[in-house]
Sequence to fold (372 residues):
Amino acid sequence: MDKRYSQSKALGAITKASFIANLKNPQSLVFSLLFPLIFVFIFGAFGGGGFTKFNIALSQGCDTSNILYQTIAKQPFIVFKKYTDTAKMRQDLEKGNLTGILTIQKTASGSDTSNALPHFNLTIKSTSASSPDLSQLVPLLENIADKLEKKLSGNRSDFVAIKQDIYNVRQYKQIDFVLPGQIGFSLLFSTLFGIAFTFFNLREQLVLKRFYATPVNRLNILLGIGFSRIFFQLINVLVLISVGHFFIGFTLAHGFATFIEMVLMSVLFLLMLMGVGLIFSSIVKNDTMIPLMINIFSLPQMLLSGTFFPITVFPVWLQNCCKILPLTHFNLAMRKISFEGTSILECWQNIGVLGLWIVAIYFVVWKVFKWE
Fold:
């Protein structure tokens, strides 16, 4: 007797085979599982306790023995910075690296001195460069004062008096943070995709092999193709900075000199990215793997390098991890150069980290690069 064909078994077999194929496909695992986990992890850590960290210094006349100071010092969003050099403290205040300088003074209150409770005068000295942070900090300090008032004196409205002493310096606008990050973001993805696909296709089509057979020096072949891509990306940098400055008000602290230093910093970053693209073009077996490799390298940097928000929103241990990434140091250096007016030589620490990445990357390029 003929057995009927089992449609349910066929469905099960097809489902099983397809499921196993998906498990064996690295792109499916990375994009459907790994990247969502990374996003959940990063945004789960966002805030590092619920608040942005505010860098605060204490004035010489600040009373640190009273309960108001002790209450403020316990807050997770306050980071007290110690300065031995008042000129350095003022410089950080005017650059926006310091939210404010805090002064707390205690005064006696009430006509009945036997039952008198202390009054507090809290003054925070700041600049217009820190106005975005200050607008968040002051309401938090007012909330602390309200709670302390209710705890110690009921509802006495004059228990803590908060004053702001703000003087104008160069305005720190949103574009001053956003534009350097967008330049880094643009260079990261467009350069990697351009270099990796260009060299992979040239190798697959045996163009590199034909070049290799000519009298042209091998290094010149690589540099010629790579530099053409770098020059193209530099045009994008020039356009982004020019449009940002002339149409949106992006700050160039020293004008054209700052513009040139930002371009030089971009060249250094592009040289590093060119090496990464060469590595990817050499180790992949087909062009469908290139986007996977680029995303694995780039997406964590996009989220952890201060491109869209400052890394200070993360816990300290994660901030330390962020400082390993090359895009972090590119973003930091570009913001120092553009807004603070720091010279490119004064960004030697950021350049040093990028230099270490370049040495390590081109050592790998030397080991893995293929001509055919």
